Amino acid sequence: MQVFSQPDELERYKYEAFASREGAIMAREERPTLRTLASLTGLAVATVSRALADDPQIAPDTRNRVMKAAREIGYSPDRAAQRLRTGRTNVIALVLNPHEEIIGYGSSMIGGITKALRGTSYHLVVMPNFADRSPMEQVENILRNKLADGVIISRTEPADLRIRLLLESGFPFISHGRTELATPHPFVDYDNTGFARAAAHRLIAAGARRPGMIPAPARFTFAQHLRTGFLRGCAESGVSGQVLEDITLDSSADTIYAAITSLIARDELPDGIVCPGETSAMAVYAACVDGGRADDCKLVMKSTSHVADLIRPRIDSIFEDLTEAGERMGKLLLRAIAGDPADQLFYLQPALPEGQQLLTEA
Amino acid sequence: MQVFSQPDELERYKYEAFASREGAIMAREERPTLRTLASLTGLAVATVSRALADDPQIAPDTRNRVMKAAREIGYSPDRAAQRLRTGRTNVIALVLNPHEEIIGYGSSMIGGITKALRGTSYHLVVMPNFADRSPMEQVENILRNKLADGVIISRTEPADLRIRLLLESGFPFISHGRTELATPHPFVDYDNTGFARAAAHRLIAAGARRPGMIPAPARFTFAQHLRTGFLRGCAESGVSGQVLEDITLDSSADTIYAAITSLIARDELPDGIVCPGETSAMAVYAACVDGGRADDCKLVMKSTSHVADLIRPRIDSIFEDLTEAGERMGKLLLRAIAGDPADQLFYLQPALPEGQQLLTEA
DNA sequence: ATCCATATTTATAACGTTTCAAATACGAGT
DNA sequence: ACTCGTATTTGAAACGTTATAAATATGGAT
To answer: Engineered SS bond to B9: which of A89, A238, B4, B344, CB 3.0-4.6 Å?
Structure first.
């Protein structure tokens, strides 16, 4: 092997790289590899590799020399090669459901995850779910092709198939939302029970006596949480609450609008409605205004963006901080990948900020 | 090399895969590779590879045999290896600016891109910009590490450095937004000039005589488009429009709220405002309501989600279809990757739907 | 039978990394 | 000088794929 160890060899390399970049011929600008670095420093490829990996077996002196050269010629490892060799992808996959990409649900969560991953070697990759693919296939695909080192999924179901598959495969993941599976697994969840309960209390405090709630689609775990919280909140004040039918959080704005309009027509409009989403709240409000009943129906909504504060007249809202959830998920997932036991990797986000907690008994 | 060509060898493989998955020992479930397929069919690895690649040099008979076996044992190629060998990543990168991830700008675009990529071998990877990294570094990173085969960037500047770099490197990309660079490059853009002009017309038609507009940050190309369109629209009606100062589309809701409140205090509130974004429109409206001037200031907003239709009282809005933009970008980018000449790869999205076009001369 | 052109198949060498086991260098102790 | 233990470096193999060039099979014409 040709060995260049003269001190000015590195200078020459840098010059040539520059020249070839500027040159009229636009010579194929060769990407530096470990071999480049090896011949430049006069070391073996293996040594260079280990030096860059901070292997303690490498003399501090050579390590510095290698690091310096790497920096100077702008070396960066080929991820495909690393991945092939080690089987690690350095990728965290965020799997988005079709519905989520529309309303931007994932969007603010992304910021949080990104933050948690900063400084690590991990990249966040967002995998929007193709509409023609079930969420299950999406996860299967990640597993089969080893597209990531860890997965973040959301909108869990009590007996979530994706989670069963991930658990069975021993693949690191975290979910936004709980399940009812026996095996513990990492999760971050928002206290939707607490949210719905607090929301019911607020409605009642504002005078509602026949409050209603727009439910989440029944298949999701948090649908039950919402229902429980809402009914409990109502019961605690001796009021009977009613979960609206035929529509859910995920119904289109038009559908919700139509349903509320129909309730108004039949004179069955509740005098207060808990809306667990921004879009649904706005649709309800629009229908109330258009039906001339805006003053007869109090609203409490769950907001996930700060747009909620800008609505006039104000709609009472309780904020779910998805960015924080994202950051927590990122951090916990990293620990899951590192092998921490799953039964400690969870976080339940309180429905109301510190100090505003609802007391359990009045 | 050991060769298994007995017809029932495949059956045995399938059984063993099943057994090892179900087995108590949970044996390391080996992922099938080309080698597996080769020994199963009794062919050479190279033959298998080419058969799967539909190489015409392979006998139709063997091709079918290989395909069948591959399907049966659930073979799927290792993307890392393919990538290392071919240099192709099969990835399209969508680079999001920090601001975009907050307001969900990218979110609806993602659906469109995904749609355009469906059925191809490409995956969409969303790369949120780390706040501590300039957009430029983001692109540099993709180039250096060859993280994708094509890039989608948005929010262009007239002399966009990222685009210059991409052009110089001959790297396939498309931008959402135009530049003023001499070299043509693929882009999709919304006719912001047309939008602002139509918006001005609508304000004036609604009675405004001193209309204003919230500008986009001056560095972006479309800031100029908005300005031109707005001023032209005003001039066409013999009215003098005024671009608001100290705030932009990207200012926080609080800042915009404060600025409008201050205008009200100084009694300088325009009698109509063009808001090129949903959040800014809601902030303006909130400030007007809170300042008791809601009826004195007409609004026209640009909306990118259908939430706009739900605001009560209604705010006049013009819809920019980001999903369509995303789909166009995806398709054009694929053509750019295929080598189509750049000067034909562009699309200017009309500001108003067919039939609602503004006539150029009144 | 023999030869040649064509149709198929195959061995081999990469791609850039990491890791294992083996080799070498370096001192200290004799 | 010699041995030995430790510190450091290294060669070679492997990860799964594709591309090149060479090898082999096939079949028709002689």
So the answer is: B4
